[in-house]
Amino acid sequence: MTTPAVARPAPTFAALAGEPEAERHLPFNRQVAAAIRYVVEHYQEQPALEDMAAAAGMSPFHFQRVFRRWAGISPKRFLQYVTLEHAKRALAADASVLDAALDSGLSGPSRLHDLFVSCTALTPGEFKALGERLVIHWGVHDAPLGRVLIGTTERGVCWLAFLEHDGDGGDNEAAVIAEFKREWRGARLLRDDAGTAGAAARAFALAAPGADPLPLLVRGTNFQVKVWEALLRIPFGRLVSYQTIARAIGQPRAVRAVGRAVGANNISWLIPCHRVILATGIIHNYRWGVRQKQILVGFEAALAGAPA
Q: Which CA distances in Å does 177 have to 145, 147, 156?
C-alpha cells in the first residue's frame, strides 16, 4: 500500500556565507538539543536567555545566533509555545484541520520549504517472506531535537526512535537498541553510523521545493497503516485528538485501538504521532517520553506561528 506524498516541513541549521567558520560547518545538534530539553523542563520558571545559553554551553550571544540560524525563530519564541495552553488552543479546531487535510490528501501549503514523505507498507507476510534478504543499516546520531537511532533499508527509513535522557547525563540507548533488534528480528541488521548519517540529517533538515520524497517503510496491520496514514495528514504545528483520528479513518468507536496504533508507530517525527494528544489538552503517553513529546509539539508550534 502506498500513500500520496505528504508535505511536512522540518527545521534546519542553515550554513550561511559570512558566518564564523564554526557556525558554517558545525550543526551544534547536541548543544541545541540540551537547551531545548532545559526549556521543556523549566518553562514554568520562564528562564532567561542566559539560562538557556548556559544549558547549551554557549555564550548568550552565540547561542541566540546559533538557535535562530537553525530554527528560524528565537529561543524566547520557542519558550512561549512550550505550554499546555497552546495544546488546549490547538485542539479547539482539530476536526476541521484534519478534515481539510484528508479532503486534499495533503497537510496543506506551508510558508516553510517542504520535506515530502512517501510511505510504503510491508505486510507481516511480506516481511516473513523476505527474511534476511531485508537488510537494515542502523546508527545512533545526535539530532537537534534529541539523540536518535535510525534504521534504513533500500525501500526507505524503517525506524526512527528518540533516546530518552534520564536526567543524570545518560540515556536509554541500550534499551532502544534492544527494542529495535526485537522489532526487526529476522532481518539482517548492520550497525552503520557513517552510512546512516545522511538519512538522520535529512530527517531533520529542510528540503528544497521539489526535492525527492524521503521514503518510509512501515510494517503493520491494515488498521495500523490506516492510522499512520491519517497521522501523515495532520498539518505541521497542529494537534488533534485520538477521537478525531478515529473519525477520520471511519471508525469513531475505535478510540482505544487508535491509541494503540499510534503507540505502535516505529518512525517518530516523520510519522508525527506526537501531534495526537488527549481531548483535555494533556500531553501524555509518548513512546519516547513525555518530555520529548513536549519538545516536538512546542517546537512545531513555534515554527508554525513564526513570521514568514
A: 19, 13, 19
Q: Please check whether residues 109 and 125 belong to one and the same domain.
A: yes
Within this chain, do residues 46 and 186 fall inside the same structural domain, yes or no?
A: no
103-141 confidence digits (pLDDT tens): 544 444 343 334 457 788 887 778 888 878 899 999 999
Contacts of 85 (CB under 8 A, 6+ apart): none
**CA nearest 183: which of 257, 266, 274, 271?**
266
Residues 227-256 have pLDDT tens digits of: 999 898 888 888 888 998 998 899 999 999
- 35 and 176, same domain (yes or no): no
Catalytic residue among 66, 245, 261, 273: 273
Q: Which amino acid is at 1?
A: M
Cα(58)–Cα(21) distance, integer angstroms = 16
Q: Where in the sequence is the domain holding 273, given as residue range(s)?
A: 86-305
**Grid coordinates belonging to 9:** 516541513
pLDDT (0 to 100) of residue 61 = 93
158 classed as catalytic: no
Whether 102 and 124 share a structural domain: yes
Same domain, 29 and 176: no
CA dist., res. 286 & res. 307, Å (int)? 29
pTM across the whole model: 0.78
H/E run at residue 243: helix 242-248
- Residue whose cell numbers read 483520528: 245
